[in-house]
Specification:
Strand content of chain B: under 5%
Mean pLDDT of chain A: 75
Shape of chain A: flat
Mean pLDDT of chain B: 92
Number of strands of chain A: 0
Number of strands of chain B: 0
Largest sheet of chain A: none
Radius of gyration of chain A: 24 Å
Structural class of chain B: mainly alpha
Helix content of chain B: over 70%
Number of helices of chain B: 6
Distance between the termini of chain B: 59 Å
Largest interface: A-B, 70 and 80 residues
Structural class of chain A: mainly alpha
Low-confidence stretches of chain B: none
Oligomer: heterodimer
Strand content of chain A: under 5%
């Protein structure tokens, strides 16, 4: 037979956990509760609470999905190492780029275009207006462009 | 006929198909991680982006989060059915998951249409460039997942290759995880 069937027999690693439907439904309901908190928390408009409820809970939700829905909790260590390696690559990128981008000036350098960009935004009252809507026909300004694109047409 | 060696060997102790999907997701971590990392850095650098973020539709984002979480439940239930050898049931859950993906895309298209008609296009500012790039890239992954699930469901009905339900499920949950981070970044943080 050209297409040999694969069934659960081919995947003994998952057989032993034997979770029923209710197990997954409970996790789903927990995710919904966390989701509700992540939406409601920022409505109080307290910065610390927003960070905790929106971003902190996002991490918790992601971990729950990975652990229980993706079964990472019972996955082989090798897979964990693959994912950790990739997360490390992202962290290295993040730290490397952040140190370059976060400051427009340093001891021996100045990023003129970044300073100009920041000033442009400070001087643009439209961006401070919550009801601001751009003119659909308007030409693109320098506002919001990357620092090294600031002077491009 | 015996299956090719590549589908049977497992030097790492992880079946080849599942190992492959984890490597795919490893590369996806770098793609989305890089994109979102750059967004977070620039968002910190340019505080005024919050003015642009104030125009994103939080309700639409919240509904889509709910839809994707629900579709993830269907995906894991499809996997559970496949493990029991219930191909038809697994196919049913896969189609419910596809339905979730379709609902997500419909809401997303309505949201984007409204934003574009209001002038918030991809070239309007760097915030909107990130918004459309991140959400668009994620949307492409949703479409890819739906297409693959539809193909796998055809085998499921004939009780063939049921192990693939788990593989597409892992991918779909990852798409859900990406959205879990996109939602607060693009919709909640005003």
């Amino acid at each position: 037979m050209a297409n040999t069937s694969h069934t659960a027999d081919a995947h003994p690693h998952h057989e032993h956990h034997g979770h029923g439907t209710m197990h997954y439904v409970k996790i789903y309901l927990l995710l919904l509760v966390l989701f509700a908190i992540s939406v409601a928390g920022p409505m109080l408009e307290i910065r610390v609470l927003t960070i905790i409820t929106a971003f902190g809970i996002a991490f918790v939700k992601a971990l729950i999905v990975c652990a229980y829905f993706m079964h990472l909790k019972i996955e082989k260590r090798f897979v964990h190492y693959v994912l950790y390696a990739m997360l490390l690559a992202v962290a290295m990128f993040f730290l490397g780029v952040m140190t370059d981008l976060m400051k427009p000036t340093g001891q021996n350098w100045v990023k003129d275009s970044a300073i100009k960009l920041i000033e442009d935004h400070k001087n643009n009252p439209g961006l401070s207006d919550p009801n601001y809507k751009p003119d659909p026909g308007a030409k693109e300004s320098n506002a919001g462009k990357l620092p090294n694109q600031g002077n491009n047409p | 006929m015996a299956q090719p060696l590549a589908t049977r060997r497992s030097a790492s102790g992880v079946p080849t198909g599942r190992l492959a999907i984890w490597w795919v997701l490893g590369s996806e971590i770098v793609i989305f991680g890089g994109l979102l990392g750059a967004y977070i850095i620039l968002r910190q650098l340019y505080g005024h982006w919050s003015e642009s973020a104030a125009h994103t539709n939080t309700v639409a984002g919240a509904i889509n989060t709910f839809v994707l979480l629900t579709s993830s439940l269907f995906a894991v239930l499809a996997h559970q059915a496949a493990e029991k050898g219930q191909g038809t049931k697994a196919a049913g859950f896969l189609w419910l998951t596809i339905g979730g993906g379709a609902t997500f895309l419909v809401i997303k298209s309505i949201e984007w249409t409204t934003e574009i008609l209001n002038g918030f296009t991809i070239t309007q500012s760097l915030f909107w460039s990130f918004y459309y790039t991140a959400a668009g890239l994620h949307g492409l992954h949703v479409i890819a997942g739906m297409v693959i699930m539809a193909i796998i469901s055809l085998d499921c009905i004939r009780n063939k290759n049921l192990h693939r339900v788990e593989l597409i499920g892992i991918y779909w949950h990852f798409v859900d995880v990406v959205w879990i981070f996109l939602f607060p970044l693009l919709y909640i943080a005003k």
